[in-house]
Design brief:
By secondary structure, the chain is α+β, with helices and mostly antiparallel strands. It is built from 32 helices and 23 strands. The strands form four sheets. It has a seven-stranded mixed sheet with strand order 12-13-14-18-15-17-16, with helices on both faces. Belongs to the peptidase M16 family.
């Protein structure tokens, strides 16, 4: 079976605002196409399998060999998701075609039978699809998939889209001119992902898959192969693999699946290709090197010295991949593998938390690119003593191989697994159609069947009944069998390791270490102390509209509640409190960063992190912590049977926080380990420095240096965060499928039982977010490749809820800017799809909004980027955008918000903080109109307001050792590309 499947059901929250209600579409009548497989006939994907059929899928096969699957799904309403999978990826390339599979992906979007040059992206945008999310493609070693999520669909729009897709897949224009245009864009993509990351990926592939086709075929290809590509050579690759018998189409959405099948048949039935299909290449098996045996089992290894990367090791056991009979018994075995891995990973994590010699460690199992069935071990040594870390990890694994788990351990992991499968069944009616569409192509890729959530739960229950410590021990031993063992080690320090020392360390015997076994202890919520004396409910009223209710307790805590059955099995909980980033002073930067990593892991009261894990067994909890501009937040996705305990966890963290040394020390180690890696690429420097500089060198946004981290103490940490947890009003939002009256009683005993909140100090409330002073370009340096750079331009805009409706109009202008900049950089600089313009409009504070344009490019193209951004900003102030440009911006925005407005979480996000600031509540009205209706004149007025008299603030990130003028003059010319 493949990944978790999904199922369909229409739903909409009933609210008085018509623009928020998704309107279900009438079912479409269509004749049953002849290609649909008849009732009683085994669908093509289930041939040879006894996995129960998911009855909501309909399958068909055309006379030319093309196969398809279709199903109805109303989540989100009025959307149809289409996937066209071609059974050809980078492993199908000849030696002189490296990168062609991915290049073809670009070329199909470039020009095809029904779409002229560069018409694909704006055409999909006019149809409401957002490029990059709704309209996209992926190339892997084994396949190429073209993806379309079509919003606001009707039969005519669907047919037009299927026609356009058929033209792209069946009749792309693979001319020399198109190839010459797209190759620089693909090379730009290669450059942007290149440098240290590409070196590590390439060396890892060559080492871990030595002797196999996978070792020599990175999806991006090589410069030599791509630069020598011609229309004729690419056409030859296309003709060999783009054939109907190599194609699977998946269509899922809010229309009649018979209509889907009919359109597949209509636009692909007559697709015929001359000649016999080419046989798929032989991918090869992992083969042990000569001389490898039980006494010396380790084969290829590589030590990579990369001064800007943290230490990391991967080693694995590689076995041949073989096609399986996808049966229930086979899947029970897969679940036992999962169980065995969970047991080992919990022990590895327990060792790391307890002060082990590694920062993290994890074991996984994967069937990689139909080339190998591998068990991979990955970990990060805390220090240069990588051998001690390796021995620690191997010792934990050796114990798992030597002795069976205890019944208590087994029960715990089984309970954990059951939650996931049972919750999937609960939520099957509200899972997105796009996920179902992906499920089918992924199942085809791994050559397995597809199954309903009930089937997964049934197979799990069957496995659970048979699972014993001995059977899990046997499965564990199989995971670590094989005489093909390979490894890679990344280190920043030359001379720290050699290939010989790595082979020797992996070959030596280690002692089984049972100390990491997690002791069988029961921690029950029933035994936990109360948060405090239960509070008193003092107010209860309808909040704003519809079914949302506001309650208030005598300690000032307020909650917004929306209880319905629109999304079975889902409850979203969000807690807002405190002042957010405003609570901190400039000197607190390191402690702010450590709070994001260590605050939650420190537990509460007498409960540490391992105890939290025990409490979570058999439950669905979440505990995300965020530092916003104006508030701190706890977030969770839970379910109604676990809501009471979820609320207790959140309230206990506020009422009785715990301050543990080990999570704090581990967070420091992780931050120090990652620091140097920022300098490995322009993107790393942008991630490290952008907020700090764009906010006028506000040190609260400074990424902590190792020296700053070393200076931070647990006492400092507690002194900063303890008062921050006590301050400011608390707002709890609970939206989803739960019992409202029971939740109010739980709130009374948890959040209502907290002490009265301390006021936020006035100086915190007055800490505004500033903006950098525009002037000369700020130049920062990276230690990566000499042909890599990044550029940023930012303009200050508004913030806060007072002008939130203006921010939605500004989002339209930002999309227009984004479309123009993408086109300009692709044409002028051969850039890939990296250029992006984004709007940040903070809601909880009154300052700090920005429009930011950024891109990764060559150093010599930095001036072109700045010039293009300046020109677009200037042009928008002088000449309004065209109606067609606005359509390309507003249609995707309107459709995006129509889709997400059918879910509970959308309303939670819109209404958060409205108990404190009623403007949030009022701003909800008119949301869809604000994003979808505007005029060219309104856009010009906004451009004049925000771009007209302001120069953008600029930052360039260029290679170390160059100045900006040198970087520009030494780069290849880009004119005419």
């Amino acid at each position: 079976m493949t990944d978790f499947p999904r199922a369909a059901r229409r739903f909409a929250i009933l609210l008085p605002f018509a623009f928020l209600a998704a309107q279900p579409m009438a079912a479409q009548e269509a004749a049953v196409p002849a290609s649909l497989q008849a009732e009683g006939e085994v669908p093509w994907i289930y041939e040879g399998s006894d996995v129960p059929r998911d009855q909501e899928w309909l399958f068909g096969e055309l006379n030319n060999g093309l196969r398809y699957g279709v199903r109805e799904n109303g989540v989100p309403p009025n959307q149809v998701s289409i996937r066209v999978r071609i059974d050809a990826g980078s492993l199908y390339e000849n030696d002189n075609e490296l990168g062609y599979a991915h290049l073809l992906e670009h070329l199909l979007f470039r020009e095809s039978k029904y779409l002229g040059v560069s018409e694909a992206i704006p055409t999909w945008q006019r149809l409401g699809a957002t490029f990059g999310s709704d309209t996209n493609a992926e190339t892997s070693p084994t396949h190429t998939v073209y993806k379309l999520d079509l919003p606001n669909v009707d039969p005519a729009k669907l047919e037009e889209s299927m026609k356009l897709l058929s033209g792209m897949v069946r009749a792309p224009v693979l001319s020399d001119g198109n190839v010459r245009t797209e190759v620089p864009i693909v090379l730009a993509e290669k450059r942007e992902r290149g440098g240290v990351g590409e070196r590590v990926a390439e060396t890892s592939m060559k080492t871990l898959f030595a002797g196999q086709r996978l070792a020599e075929r990175l999806t991006i290809g090589t410069e030599e192969s791509l630069e020598s590509a011609t229309g004729r050579s690419v056409q030859a690759f296309y003709d060999r693999w783009y054939r109907p018998e190599n194609t699977v189409i998946s269509v899922v959405g809010d229309l009649d699946p018979i209509l889907f099948a009919s359109l597949v048949e209509k636009y692909f039935q007559d697709w015929s290709v001359s000649g016999e299909p080419a046989p798929a290449p032989v991918f090869g098996d992992p083969i042990a090197p000569a001389g490898a045996d039980a006494d010396n089992p380790v084969g290829e290894v590589a030590v990579m010295v990369e001064p800007t990367l943290p230490r990391a090791m991967t080693y694995g056991y590689f076995r041949p991949w073989r096609q399986v009979q996808d049966t229930v018994i086979y899947n029970e075995g897969r679940l036992r593998e999962q169980l065995a891995l969970q047991l080992i990973n919990r022990r590895l994590e327990s060792r790391a938390r307890g002060g082990g010699s590694y920062l993290y460690a994890q074991v996984s199992e994967a069937k990689i690119s139909r080339s190998t069935h591998a068990t991979l071990v990955q970990f990060a040594p805390l220090t240069e003593d990588w051998q001690a870390a390796l021995d620690d990890v191997r010792g934990v694994i050796a114990d798992a191989i030597a002795e069976p788990p205890t019944l208590e351990e087994l029960q715990r992991e089984l309970d954990e697994m059951e939650v996931g499968y049972a919750n999937l069944v609960e939520q099957r009616s509200v899972l997105a159609g796009s996920g179902y569409a992906d499920d089918l192509v992924n199942a085809v890729d791994i050559r397995e069947a597809i199954a309903a959530p009930e089937t997964f739960l049934m197979v799990f229950n069957s496995m659970r009944e048979k699972a014993t410590p001995e059977s899990v021990l046997a499965e564990t031993r199989e995971l670590f069998e094989g005489n093909v063992i390979r490894a890679t080690y990344i280190t920043p320090a030359a001379g720290e390791a050699t290939e010989e020392s790595l082979q020797a360390a992996l070959s030596r015997t280690v002692m089984a270490d049972g100390d990491a076994r997690v002791a069988a202890q029961t921690v029950s919520f029933d035994d936990l102390p109360p948060v405090g004396e239960p509070g008193t409910l003092v107010e209860r009223a309808v909040h704003a509209f519809g079914q949302v209710e506001r309650v208030k307790f005598d300690n000032g805590v307020q909650a917004l509640l929306l209880a319905n059955e629109n999304e079975p099995g889902r409850v979203a909980v969000k807690v807002r409190f405190g002042a957010g980033i405003r609570a901190f002073a400039p000197e607190d930067a390191a402690l702010i960063q450590l709070g994001e990593a260590a605050l939650i892991q420190s537990g509460f009261g007498d409960i540490g992190q391992n105890d939290l894990d025990r409490l979570a067994t058999g439950r669905k909890f979440g505990f995300e912590f965020g530092i916003g501009e104006g508030a701190f937040t706890f977030d969770a996705q839970t379910r109604k049977q676990d809501l009471e305990d979820q609320l207790y966890l959140f309230a206990a963290k506020l009422g009785m926080p715990r301050w543990d040394e080990l999570p704090f020390a581990r967070a420091k180690a992780a931050a120090k380990s990652a620091f140097d890696s920022y300098e490995s690429s322009p993107a790393g420097i942008v991630n490290r420095d952008l907020e700090y500089f764009v906010y006028g060198q506000d040190s609260r946004f400074k990424t902590a240096t190792p020296e700053m981290l070393d200076a931070a103490t647990l006492e400092d940490f507690r002194n900063l965060w303890e008062p921050a947890l006590r301050q400011g009003p608390i707002e709890v939002l609970i939206f989803g499928d739960y019992d409202k009256e029971a939740a109010i009683e739980t709130l009374r005993r948890t959040f209502g039982a907290l002490p009265d909140r301390e006021p936020i100090p006035a100086e915190d409330l007055n800490r505004d977010l500033g903006f950098a002073t525009p002037g000369e370009t700020l130049v920062r340096y990276h230690q990566g490749e000499a042909d890599q750079a990044a550029a940023v331009v930012a303009w200050p805009v508004g913030a806060g809820p007072a002008e939130i409706r203006k921010s939605r109009q500004l989002a339209i202008l930002t999309e227009v800017f984004n479309n123009r900049l993408r086109d300009a950089m692709r044409e002028q600089a051969g850039a890939s799809y990296a250029p992006v313009v984004r709007l940040d409009w903070p809601i909880d504070v009154e300052t700090g909004g920005t429009v930011t344009a950024l891109a990764q490019l060559r150093p010599g193209d930095v001036p072109s980027f700045f010039a293009a951004a300046d020109k677009i900003a200037r042009d928008l102030t002088q000449t309004p955008p065209t109606v067609d440009e606005l359509s390309q911006a507003t249609e995707p925005l309107r459709n995006y918000y129509e889709r997400i407005s059918s879910g509970n979480y959308f309303f939670l996000l819109q209404l958060e903080n409205s108990t404190v600031d009623p403007r949030r509540m009022r701003s909800l009205r008119g949301l869809l109109n604000d994003y979808s209706q505007t005029t060219p004149e309104a856009m010009q007025a906004l451009a004049q307001e925000y771009f007209g008299d302001k120069s953008g603030w600029r930052m360039a990130v260029i290679p170390q050792g160059q100045d900006l003028a040198t970087a520009v003059s030494s780069s290849p010319a880009t004119s005419g590309r």
